[in-house]
Design a protein that fits this description.
Layout (H helix, E strand, L loop, with lengths): L1 H17 L7 H23 L7 H4 L6 E2 L8 E2 L3 H6 L1 E9 L3 E8 L2 E8 L5 H13 L8 E5 L4 E5 L9 H5 L10 H19 L5 E2 L7 H5 L2 E3 L5 E3 L7 E2 L44 H15 L5 H15 L10 H10 L1
Helix pairs in contact: 7-9, 7-11, 9-10
GO molecular function: ATP binding; carbohydrate kinase activity; protein kinase activity
Protein name: Protein O-mannose kinase
Membrane topology: Single-pass type II membrane protein
């Protein structure tokens, strides 16, 4: 009997020793915690992340050459010169750039934006912008209502929230404070990269957003719609890249400086050599990719959770900042990385 009891004790002792917990290294424990946090974050994202509302163009598509906005039930042809001259009433000037002055105006009791050419010397840029606006009508571009090339006037949908430059002021308004969260801001970043991807794969070819030599200038090219959907607005400087036949571009004829522009946009021959536009090497659409991290960082702001988003986007943003443009991802690859988050 004693031998039997002793044998059971020994077996129990062996089982107890075999069931003892093996210490987990601190690094492995940290990795496990991070994995669990990611799982919880992704579950939360799946619960709260709602796709951006479509713009009026996407929700109510009209045939080329026509438009519909507000409470309009049917598509109407773009307004002619005669209609722009007689049926549109200016209210006040709301902006001015090198190419256009913009006026808040009224057409059939609806607020619209009337743009007028600033000077005859800028007409070529103005006409290029009109051409781009007509050809690129989509959810990514401001709605065209009418134009008159003879008068140098252009009529588009009015967005009272203005450009992305005033995003912080808008989100600080009581009406919009509920949208001042990292997941709503991330939606704006996805929206922005979607526009860049659309331009790089547009029906007209690979277009480069050249009016973007600093962050403020870049932000001024985009409008924030009332449903918090971004649309490209200023399309006066959209040169096309044709890599198949070696056609590259240069954004203007002046020397560009600063960290916001891509390295290949900087004068490569040193300060001791005066800038010469004819010697400046051309480049391609990867200049837009270089700027994405800076624009996204602005859009994310400094709300709770934005640093977590930056951490998860670090790898793709690091790739965007590769000095060699050929090593940078495409806009589609950046968009895919954003959407995976």
């Amino acid at each position: 009997m004693e031998d039997s009891n002793m044998e059971k004790k020994l077996q129990g002792s062996k089982r107890g020793s075999s069931q003892r917990e093996i210490p987990i290294p601190p690094a492995a424990l940290l990795l496990l915690v991070m994995v669990l946090m990611n799982i919880l974050l992704y579950l939360y994202l799946d619960h709260v992340f709602v796709s951006p509302l479509p713009s009026g163009v996407e929700a109510r598509p009209c045939p080329f050459g026509t438009f519909r906005m507000g409470q309009m039930k049917n598509c109407s042809p773009w307004l002619s010169c005669e209609s722009l001259r007689t049926a549109v009433r200016k209210l006040k000037r709301v902006g001015e750039g090198a190419v256009k002055r913009v006026f808040l105006s009224e057409w059939k009791e609806q607020k619209v934006a009337l743009s007028q050419l600033t000077s005859p010397e800028m007409k070529e840029d103005f006409l290029h912008g009109v051409k781009m606006l007509k050809a690129l009508q989509s959810e990514h571009v401001v709605l065209l209502i009418g134009c008159c090339e003879d008068d140098g006037t252009l009529l588009t949908e009015y967005h009272p929230l203005g450009t992305l430059k005033t995003l912080e002021e808008t989100l600080n308004l009581p009406k919009y404070q509920s949208l001042n969260t990292w997941h709503h801001r991330l939606k704006l970043a996805i929206n922005y990269v979607s526009i860049i991807n659309y331009l790089h794969t547009s029906p007209l070819g690979t277009l480069v957003m050249c009016d973007s030599n600093d962050l403020d200038k870049m932000l001024s090219q985009y409008l924030l719609a009332s449903n918090f959907h971004i649309v490209a607005n200023d399309l006066d400087a959209l040169p096309v890249v044709h890599k198949s036949n070696g056609t590259l571009i240069k954004c203007g004829h002046r020397e560009l400086v600063g960290e916001f522009v891509a390295p290949e946009q900087l004068w490569p021959y040193g300060e001791e050599t005066p800038f010469d536009d004819e010697r400046m090497p051309p480049y391609d659409e990867k200049t837009d990719i270089w700027k994405i991290p800076d624009v996204t960082s602005f859009l994310l702001g400094h709300v709770e959770g934005s640093d977590v988003v930056r951490f998860h986007l670090f790898e793709i943003h690091q790739a965007c900042k590769k000095k060699n443009p050929e090593e940078r991802p495409s806009a589609q690859e950046v968009l895919d990385a954003y959407r995976r988050f």
